[in-house]
Please model this.
Amino acid sequence: MSMNSTPAANRIHIGFFGLRNAGKSSLVNAVTGQELAVVSKVRGTTTDPVYKTMELLPLGPVMIIDTPGYDDEGTLGELRVKKTRQVLNKTDVAVLVTDARSGLTETERELTLLFEKKQIPYIIAYNKCDLLADVPGEGAGEIYVSARKGTGIYELKEKIAASVKEPKEERRLAGDLVSRGSTVILVTPIDSAAPKGRLILPQQQVIRDLLETGAIPVVVRETELKEAFASLAAKPAAVITDSQVFEKAARETPEDVFLTSFSILMARYKGILEEAVRGASAIGRLCDGDKILIAEGCTHHRQCEDIGTVKLPRWLKEYTGKELHPVFVSGTEFPEKLSSYRLIIHCGGCMLNEREMRYRMQCAKDAGVPMTNYGTAIAYMKGILKRSLGILPEIRKILEQ
Model:
């Protein structure tokens, strides 16, 4: 991904749902204006969710998701339905595609109940309206379309745009925490898990956010942090570090300079930091044999010193002195049953949108399992969590409750 393209997690996610052969893929192709999804008269052609990033006016950058038929059958069908339900957890706006020649089936009504339960705004698109003798009047949240003829496609896009809930306030990563002209040191190890020649996504996003504020980001490796301080004429406003070198950054950052991590800022950006701070204290209550779920939102090739599968388990053992049983999941895989875990430690979630991160946090709360994230957990184990929240005094108060 270039620094000019909008990250997938920051795009509005629009999911197309419905039964097999309702014309979901044809409608997706009509909306996107390209042959994104395979179309066939054979029922169940779409076997896995198909994702496409694009610009959809007047919304801007969006993620279009074409899902398998919700009425799929057999063992493979059950897996497809499961994947469809997973897509729901990240969907900002849902389009239920149904055949205009028949009323909503019981399965389709089940889908609308799921949308309502998950508080997802939705539109019912009655497809194949060109096959009707008379097109009925549209109710609220309904539209008659024909993917084959192109009827109602523009109007459907307008309805999708109108369904998007505007956030009460624009959430920032770091730019609202410092003032224009202030210097911020970003400690960014050259991560072996990142593609060659690139910074990892949270680092890119924080740099961009600081630049928009008019702050001056100074980017260094952890091995040059001391030199960075020595080279500055004035004290920096803050140091933001990669969690893997939190301890070293804390040692080398003066106490009167704010210190936090990319992961903590990402948890704030995704709206889960308060719960992550509360969840971190569960680390001190772990016992021998406890199962710990370590979850990552993306999939990447595991390196020999991978933070999720290697460093975190090691730090947990060093801190607790207990024999724990870590379980690792990544990407879209997140267990439906969480009650067997004593703690969930999630990555920063830079590849997951806010809706999915909040959903995962809510699942943990419903199961009575504390959940924290990488940066918060590491700061807790290194004894610097209170300090790392100094730049966020409202969140820091949680530690005093």
